[in-house]
Amino acid sequence: MNQILFGVIATLGVLAALGTVLARNLVHAALFLVAFFFLVACQFVMLEAEFLAAVQVLVYIGAVAIILMFGIMLTRNIQGDDTTTVSKAGFISGGLAAAGLLAVLVFGILDDEGRTGRAGWRDVTTRPAVYPVAARASAEQTKAVNNMGFVVGRELLTRYLIPFEVAGVLLTAALVGAIALAVQDGPSTDDPAERAKKAAEHTAAAETEPQLTSA
Amino acid sequence: MHDIPLTWFLIFASACFVIGLLGVLVRRNAIAVLMAIEIMLNAANINIIAFWRYSVPGPEESPVSGPMLAIFVITIAAAEVAVGIGLILLCYRRRASADVDQYDSLSG
Amino acid sequence: MNVATDWALPLVWAQQSELDSIPWLKWIIVLAVVFFGIFPGIVAYMVWGERKVAGRFQDRIGPNRVGPFGLLQPIADAIKLITKEDIVPRTADQWVHLLAPVMILVSAFLVLPVIPFGLGLAAVNPPSGLIYLIAVSSISALGIFLAGWSSRNKYSLLGAMRAVAQLVSYEVPQVMSVIPVILWTGSLSMVAIFDRQVEYGWFIFSPPGLLAFILLTIANIAEVNRTPFDLPEAESEIIAGYHTEYSGMRFGLFFLAEYLSVFAVSCLGTAVFLGGGTLPWPFTGEPVVTLGSGQGLLSLILVNLPLIGIFMAKVGLYVFLMFWIRCTLPRLRVDQLMSFAWKVMVPLSIINVFIAALWYEFVFRPGRPNYLLGWGVTAPLVLISVIVVLSIYKAQMKADLAASPTSRRRIATAN
User: Fold this and answer.
1) CB nearest to A48's CB, from B8, B53, B99
2) What number of other Cβ atoms are within 10 A of residue B102's Cβ?
3) How many domains does the structure of chain B reveal?
4) Interface pTM, i.e. ipTM
5) CATH number of the domain that A3 lies in?
6) Measuring CA to CA, which of A206, B55, C241, C256 is 20 to 30 A from C186?
7) Cα torsion at C358, C361, C363, C368 (round to 10°)?
């Protein structure tokens, strides 16, 4: 049952990922990406990490996908039909590189010997049971699986305090950076004449040799 | 009821990663490239969680080391998309194109 | 007091079927009866209720032609919607156009399984239920965006852009305002939140809880796009916003989803701050404490009937509050909408988390709860922070107005 479920989710996941990469319409690609995010959340549930699945849906579908959609809308024509045609040669070489990497990865995964004293990856066929009785797993791990939100919260403020703070600083920096990038040059104005002048300046600047450094 | 072997998750994750790589290599639209990068990050997350769930943490280790790493990856990915879209919009405004092949000012 | 913290609690009468080891049957019953029968029925009569309430507010009678008091009006509306022609614009993106309303509806439905309507009446009880709830309700933004995009209509697109900006902005205070509850409960499970309120009384009965409840209510109204936050479908400006190009039952799906999410956010507010189906302060924990001690099916039914009744009464009041606000307040401007979210709601909800921590120290910290000291310390803090944030906001608005060109100033002063 579990294996069948995994097979279904994995197949759909790979198809969604392929759709994201190959769809010509960018909004369709983003839609496939949303499906992929959702299927990854399903995989998290298969791995008994439903807290992460909820976070995945919240952050990726609720925020990242929306930002991407906005990005698609604000660039190029608004219907997102802009197709980025790929040359055949580029596609073949890219495909070859990807297929080669896949072959290497699959070979590596199936051929893993395992570190000393540990089983190779291909021999790990069952996860440590966490219920009803702790077989291989400790009580800590049982709690981590059954109430991950609680354990994650506790660990974030004890063991992972510094990474947590650094992540906070990073997010603040990203926030400030994104605003600094997106804001128009100079204070915005409500005066239509001035706005038209600005727009003219802007197109003039765009027509001359564009310089990325003057941001 | 048979449990799922660890390698299945790993192979699924590597397949997704490779598809993401393909996207980065063949797509020319900057936003499509960003989407492909998101696929790769997600594939890495599946890997992390699979390894976490299929192993027993040592007595000194955190019981949620895997999810913690995944949460940080999600955080970074969110920040990356926000800044990435900002950058793409800025480039688009200056070049009137979201094609990564045209952002070649630095090539001699 | 540890009531019903079991995993995956089914409906009472469906619990029997699990003994016969047919879990599928249970889920089919739950899905068929509750999700396709009861909830759409509630939605249908909510629409009727809104039309009646709005009628009264506007000095009209409201629907009164079909059946007694117009009670059959929702059925007539449904038949009308189903039999109408389903028109899809030729240039629309067919698949996405079809998918968008379904996505919004699914998002509205997915919120409901984790709501604890009574003892053991949450369809599922995941340990991170609250995050799950917020996560699935954020999917609707995507559906709205796709609806507007796929229609190939400028008004639809404008509405969708407005909707997404609004939903994303108001999601932040919505999430931040439930953080005090998570802090006080020490868990994300909706059932654990219910249990905690059975033990300590409703969370709204504390200064930070009251502020959080008000913030959550405002954010909820914005999340379901109702007046005064109905810019995405502002009729006088952009026809009907993102569902301009929808007709027949596809429009019906939007309609269903909108009212279903009104119901869902009301359930959220009730379950998180209003103590679910329990009675207020002097009867803390009733009727669970007196009726819920026994085991077995009969006891469960006995305790659940009053619980569901009270829960539904609270949800009804909450929904009425939303209708009342809708009938009373005019629509906001886009810049007012955004600045209100980012300059008032977000700072207040962040400050509120700290005040909630103080309340935790006084009341929930193991030991004897000291309500008097808690009120004495946190109430002035809440009051001061609200006044300070609002006055800064007002001063800023005034400065903005003074700096803006004359045309807008003239309009503003004329109003």
Assistant:
1) B53
2) 14
3) 1
4) 0.90
5) 1.20.120.1200
6) B55
7) -150
Non-local CB neighbours of A55 within 8 Å, separated by 6+ positions: B71, B74, C131, C135
Count of domains for chain C: 1
- Is there a cis peptide before residue C228, judged by omega within 30 degrees of 0? yes
- Is there a domain that residue A112 lies in? no
pTM given for the model: 0.84
Contacts of C142 in chain A (CB under 8 A): 34, 61-62, 65-66, 69
Instruction: List Cα–Cα distances, C264 to A158, C102, C279, in angstroms.
Output: 36, 17, 21
Higher pLDDT, A121 or C297: A121
Q: Give A20's contacts (C-beta < 8 A, 6+ positions apart).
A: A29, A30, A32, A33, A36, B19, B23, B35, B36, B39
Q: What is the pLDDT of residues C366-390, one digit of tens each?
A: 777 777 888 888 888 889 999 999 9
Give CA–CA dist C55/A2, Å, rounded.
54
The conformation of residue A212, written as its DSSP 8-state character, comes to G
**Contact predicate A149/C135, CB 8 Å:** no
d(CA C188, CA C193): 7
Among the partner residues A34, A147, A190, nearest to C142 by beta-carbon distance = A34
**C85: burial class by Cβ within 10 Å (0-12, 13-18, 19+)?**
exposed
Quickly count helices (H) and strands (E) in chain A.
9, 0
Q: DSSP assignment, residue C89?
A: -
